[in-house]
Design brief:
Layout (H helix, E strand, L loop, with lengths): L2 H24 L16 H15 L16 H11 L6 H23 L2 H12 L2 H5 L7 H21 L2 H15 L8 H14 L9 H26 L9 H6 L7 H12 L4 H6 L10
Helix pairs in contact: 1-4, 1-5, 2-3, 4-5, 4-7, 7-8, 8-10, 9-10
């Protein structure tokens, strides 16, 4: 790595730190906190509870009794590891470091695609995007997922640019781990394979070296995520791609019905209900957006 890139990375970390500080100061609902049952809410509670039951009861569960399929495994497992070694209070600083790493991957990817100037422009736009910074202060897997996804993009771009089989396999592994962190990317290998085949038909340069390379990429991806899918099948008797909320996560921003309906259906698969879901469980609760 040349000196210009090293200077750019130092600037990225400094600028990202500065933006995080201002977002924290300007938004009172964000806060540097120790993650405990009294300081978390919403989805944070589920990830926290699962991590505690992994540690204390050796079960991936919301209630410590029944195994759950509602959430993917990577984030709660990492949380439980931090708790096991007594570093639970350092989880927030770790997420801050992760957001620096994802910014660096954005810069490196854009640099590979075009040049250093595009890399700096891309990373500045990424850092100034409010949700990227806000998620750092919340006990949800989005920050970790962003790092894994940007790592996948970086190695995939390098693989396509230099026609390197090793980079394709590394990118596939990162994508699989990202999917086990947040399952919305489970359809991406299929989409990439479809794009490659269309390029082959139209005689254009493909994003993979050849069909064999495409098959290896896709196969490795599904090999990595398949143990968790098998585990979900053994628990629920249904083929659940990573988590029972996968469909909800893919659907919530595009479907015209209220998300509560979809949430309840996902909970029914998992046989775990929150208060609202319990009230309307089994009913065809369907609300059109207004």
């Amino acid at each position: 790595m040349d000196n210009k890139k090293l200077r750019d990375i130092v600037f990225i970390v400094f600028f990202n730190s500065l933006v995080l500080f201002f977002f924290y100061k300007l938004t009172p609902f964000l806060g540097v906190r120790i993650f405990t049952p009294t300081t978390i809410s919403g989805d944070e509670v589920e990830y926290y509870n699962i991590s505690k039951h992994i540690l204390n009861n050796s079960i991936f569960s919301l209630d410590g009794i029944n195994s759950t399929t509602s959430r993917p495994p990577i984030y709660p497992l990492i949380l439980s590891c931090f708790s096991f070694i007594g570093l639970e209070n350092l989880f927030l600083p770790m997420q801050i470091v992760l957001t620096f790493i994802s910014s660096i991957f954005v810069y490196l990817t854009a640099t590979e695609l075009k040049n250093r100037k595009l890399g700096l422009l891309a990373v500045i736009m990424n850092i100034l995007y409010f949700p990227i910074q806000a998620q750092v202060f919340v006990l949800i897997p989005d920050t970790l997922f962003t790092v894994l996804l940007t790592a996948f993009l970086y190695f995939f771009v390098k693989a396509a640019k230099y026609k390197n089989n090793t980079f394709y396999l590394i990118s596939s592994a990162f994508l699989a781990i990202a999917t086990l962190t947040r399952p919305t990317t489970i359809i991406l290998p299929i989409i990439l394979s479809f794009v490659h085949l269309i390029q082959q038909i139209t005689k254009k340069k493909g994003i993979f070296i050849n069909n064999k390379n495409m098959i290896l990429f896709t196969t490795l991806f599904f090999i990595i995520i398949s143990p968790w899918i098998i585990r979900n099948y053994n628990i629920s008797g249904k083929v659940i791609p990573v988590a029972s909320l996968t469909g909800f996560n893919l659907w919530q921003s595009t479907y015209h019905a209220n998300v509560l309906y979809i949430t309840v259906k996902a909970r029914q698969v998992d046989k775990v209900f929150d208060a609202e879901a319990t009230r309307i469980a089994g009913k065809d609760y369907y609300i059109e957006n207004k």
